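If your schedule permits, I should be very grateful for your opinion on a structural question. Kindly check, if you would, that the fold set down in the tokens agrees with what the sequence suggests. Thank you for your consideration; the sequence and its tokens are set out here:
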Amino acid sequence: MQIYEKKSSIFASVMKVLFVCHGNICRSAMAEFILKALVKAKGLESQFYIESAAVSAEEIGNPIYPPAKRCLSQHGVWFDPAKRARQVTRADYARFDRIICMDASNLRLIRRFIPEDPEGKIHLMMSYTGVGRDVADPWYTGDFETTFQDLLEGCEAMLSGQDC
């Protein structure tokens, strides 16, 4: 019984974060690996569990979009080449402590899967920076650098303990 309690206690101390965007091949995937790099650099890997997902089914099973991979590589951020897009599920609400959407559209669409947020887990990414704007979407702009900077700023603010 004590072993179970210890495991349960350790598991409970891990912050579980799910990043969400439209297709899970650009913004949310980039955020996943940016936050993983930041927690690794701070020696906090054992305190975080980080994933990403999509509100859409369009890209399920597809890898990270090549320009997103290129941008991450240019900044020295490792990413898992086996990463594949997946869709948000209702079960994710119970599995994660924070569900972080990239824009207002994602926030609206996630309600199809998670209609209620009684624990206040669902947030906009840029709200951690004190600004309630969307993360720039490189799918439409082609500007992966601006997206990277938005995500880096949001992840750093989240890690520094700023609430949304």
Remarks:
- Residues 1-11 have pLDDT under 50 and may be disordered.
